[in-house]
Amino acid sequence: MKVIIIGVGGFIGSYLFDAVNMRHEVIGTSTHNKRFKKLDISEFGKTSRFLKGKNPDVICLPAGITNLDYIEKNPNISEKINVLGTENIVNYCSDNDCRLIFFSSDAIFDGKMGPYYENDAANPISIYGKQKFEAENIVKKLDDFAIIRTSSVYGWDKKKMNFVSRLIDSLENNKKIKAPTDQFYTPTYVIDLVNAAIKLMNKKFNGIYNIAGPDFMSRYKIALNVCRIFGFEKELVVPVESSELNQTAKRPKYGGLINKKALKELGIKLCGLKEGLIDMKSGPVW
Predict the structure, then answer these.
(1) DSSP H helical segments within 99-203, as ranges?
(2) For 267, phi and psi rounded to 5 degrees?
(3) Which domains does the chain carry?
(4) 127 by DSSP, 3-state: which?
(5) Each residue of 232-282: pLDDT tens digit?
(6) What residues have CB less than 8 Å from 144, skipping those under 6 apart?
(7) Is 109 exposed, middle or buried (0-12, 13-18, 19+ CB in 10 A)?
(8) pLDDT tens-place string over residues 34-58
(9) How far apart are CA 17 and CA 26, in angstroms?
(10) In this structure, which long-range contacts are made by residues 125-130, counting pairs with CB atoms below 8 Å and at least 24 apart in sequence?
(11) Coil, strand, or helix at residue 171?
């Protein structure tokens, strides 16, 4: 199987590339990692020519702009990648009999009654969530696809692109960090996420799958668990309400995802936060 991963310079994409590389022929693209082919998926002509030259069996699309506050301030820039870029990949897959694995988010929900099942009604409250939902609807036009929805993905990351990684960096430097008590998620270990993605490359798994951890907890409780497992002073974590953070984009209050479908159909295990943090503590992957 030949796999192309678009966005290997990102947090999820980098882990996915390494995991797939151990099992299949894989090609990675990135807009900022010079090790890989630079590809701007908003440019259909260049994207289509590149993909046709490689003729992949599967395309994985974790690429995208994910900074919610940046997107809220720059909706046109982010739409080019998050929506138009997705549409360009979908058009290629449709014309060339290629399977697509698309990564989405619990941000497509309003957070009033989370965590959510796959068939719950979407109602995004941020521009990021709206763009992800629009991209999902484009992907659904394909016959051969899997949409992975996930929530609060964590793991070691040199660029500190996830909450847990940023938190550990601050606590190691004895810096206080604010953590909201009123934003709830289902924290998801990146290793579990990429293993599920590899399983979903199999054509028999079509549709939407929630790939998220089993624990439903606030950012503040996540931070307290990090302190407990890694031995940091919990007093460094300051509990706050979202209104105190001056965040531009609205966050779902009760986000998160229910993973029963994935557990049943894929036969996988998704670890709880404590188990994931203990695995992280055993050492960074690099």
Answers:
(1) 127-139, 163-172, 190-199
(2) 65, 40
(3) 2-281 (3.40.50.720)
(4) helix
(5) 999 999 999 999 999 999 999 999 999 999 999 999 999 999 999 999 999
(6) 93, 97, 98, 99, 100, 203, 206
(7) buried
(8) 899 999 999 999 999 999 999 999 9
(9) 7
(10) 125/250, 125/252, 126/68, 126/71, 126/72, 126/249, 126/250, 126/251, 127/68, 127/71, 127/72, 127/75, 127/78, 127/249, 128/66, 128/68, 128/71, 128/72, 128/78, 128/82, 128/249, 129/105, 129/252
(11) helix
Contacts of 251 (CB under 8 A, 6+ apart): 68, 111, 126, 180, 183, 242
Q: How confident is the model at residue 284 (pLDDT cuts 50, 70, 90)?
A: low
* pTM more than 0.90: yes
First to last CA, the chain: 26
- What integer pLDDT is reported at residue 286 of this predicted model? 43
Amino acid at 216: F
Tens digit of each residue's pLDDT (9 = 90 or more) over 132-191: 999 999 999 999 999 999 999 999 998 898 999 999 999 999 999 999 999 999 999 999
